[in-house]
């Protein structure tokens, strides 16, 4: 049976791909993806055939992959991070019903929450929520509700797509919603251009975060009520003895004021 | 400066590690970890020196790693999945303040939410929450609150540690809490032994899920109100045109009844 493999390539460089992702790309004849990510792969595997579509042409991109597979070619659809987190896995499976002769397989990858978390320290070691601020496909009210519920649950939060040119103030808006219930000193983190040359990260307070510039290559982390700064890093404790503050600072009372 | 590297090894097999994770292990002299995960690595790299501690001896395990690094040896601390998701990253950074001569670096990996999601289809393509049911280090009331908030937010949910011998009915209890507000037909997924020989997955309803047996090698997925079954897979739409149901079924009204 012909097949398209959806490959999560991680944050960018070859060494942050899984071995299986790399092997799948090496064995592919055609690599399909969003222009920016395809450029990253092209540098590593220049001899492949590449097909790209710009942003907002995701459906065309999927159909392109299925059409190539139908010709009997080995096709990889690349996604940054993981194809299953704001990636193309869902759309590929949905459109796949129109191509019953082609199977869709997934190769998972390191999504920005994990790659960015590793740079900042350990912000997501305990329960967390992942929320995209893009309202291209999601009503803004749904995004607001999710931010409020996540704060109420005392989840650590990882925010994808915090801003774009057209949505320059969305990170500010999200921070203002969180500040309704979360203290301004809450520890946060910001990672720019994960895994790329211009990679940068910063640990800061929620109050500082609200005035930071962000773009579509920024990933944002909001700590939970226990998150603390240790040696310049952002650390959410899991509750082990040594984390309880014997000699390393004090943990706040658990999820203060939560009631449902 | 001496260094310990916290390496997320993904779900198990070598091909689901990142290239960087594999290189780090290859270049290590001592590999420290929980017994079960160390056994997986030992098969691949039998010539290394291994140090293990059982569950609940996490602090000893970390100190073991720091002591080896202090001797000038190259040390890797391995975690299943990603060290930053219910892993050792946080405890390593916390205890690291006692070993200021040793730096702690993180190599992220594919956590069970991503590896299990890829098997089930695309359950986490939109906003989601990750919740552990283990109350060893977290009060059960906090876990209950997080389940309720996640359902209220209409997050897709990924559940880690759904049960153990001592907590045999925890998955049932969690499902009963979700059933207070979520319809019994809500699409769910269950993955056993991700990345291992006995790997198995199942797509089922929340009502069916509540009576399933689970253990510490099980990962559970609860869809959001839009999640549907497509070709036997679990798919959470992101909102693209083709997913809106023109010819592929109908999406439920967005996050019905949510108000805060």
So how many helices of chain A?
8
Number of strands of chain A: 13
Oligomer: homodimer
Strand order of the largest sheet of chain A: 3-2-4-1-5
Task: Summarize, please.
2 copies of one chain form a homodimer. Chain A has 260 residues and is α/β, with parallel strands linked by helices.
Give the topology:
The structure is a homodimer.
Chain A: E1 2-8, H1 19-27, E2 30-34, H2 35-44, E3 49-53, H3 58-70, E4 75-79, H4 89-95, E5 102-107, H5 112-120, E6 121-122, E7 128-132, H6 140-152, E8 156-160, H7 170-178, E9 187-192, E10 200-205, H8 206-209, E11 218-222, E12 228-230, E13 233-235
Parallel strand pairs in A: 1-4, 1-5, 2-3, 2-4, 6-13, 7-8
Antiparallel strand pairs in A: 8-11, 9-10, 9-11, 12-13
Kindly describe this structure.
2 copies of one chain form a homodimer. The radius of gyration of chain A is 20 Å and the shape is elongated. A 5-stranded parallel β-sheet of chain A has the order 3-2-4-1-5, sandwiched between helices. Chain A has a 5-stranded mixed β-sheet with strand order 7-8-11-9-10, sandwiched between helices. Helices cover 28% and strands 24% of the residues of chain A. In chain A, strand 2, helix 2 and strand 3 form a beta-alpha-beta unit. Chain A is an alpha/beta fold. The longest helix of chain A has 13 residues. Chains A and B meet through helix 1, helix 4, helix 5, strand 6 and strand 7 of A and helix 1, helix 4, helix 5, strand 6 and strand 7 of B.
């Amino acid at each position: 049976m012909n097949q398209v493999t959806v490959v999560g390539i991680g944050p960018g460089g070859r060494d942050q791909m899984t071995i299986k992702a790399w092997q799948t790309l090496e064995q592919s004849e055609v690599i399909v993806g969003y222009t920016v990510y395809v450029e990253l792969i092209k540098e590593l595997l220049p001899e492949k055939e590449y097909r790209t579509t710009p942003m907002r042409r995701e459906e065309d991109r999927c159909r392109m992959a299925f059409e190539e597979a139908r010709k009997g070619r080995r096709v990889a659809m690349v996604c940054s991070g993981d194809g299953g987190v704001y990636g193309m896995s869902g759309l590929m499976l949905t459109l796949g019903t129109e191509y019953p002769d082609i199977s869709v397989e997934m190769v998972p990858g390191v999504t920005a929450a994990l790659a960015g978390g590793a740079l900042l320290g350990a912000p997501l070691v305990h329960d967390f929520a992942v929320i995209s601020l893009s309202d291209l496909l999601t009503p803004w009210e749904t995004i607001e509700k999710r931010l409020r519920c996540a704060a109420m649950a005392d989840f650590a939060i990882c925010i994808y797509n915090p801003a774009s040119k057209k949505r320059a103030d969305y990170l500010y808006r999200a921070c203002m919603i969180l500040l309704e219930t979360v203290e301004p000193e809450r520890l946060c983190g910001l990672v720019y251009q994960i895994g790329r040359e211009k990679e940068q990260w910063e640990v800061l307070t929620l109050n500082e975060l609200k005035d930071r510039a962000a773009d579509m290559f920024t990933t944002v982390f909001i700590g939970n009520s226990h998150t603390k700064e240790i040696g310049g890093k952002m650390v959410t404790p899991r509750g082990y003895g040594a984390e309880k503050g014997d000699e390393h600072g004090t943990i706040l009372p658990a999820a203060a004021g939560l009631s449902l």
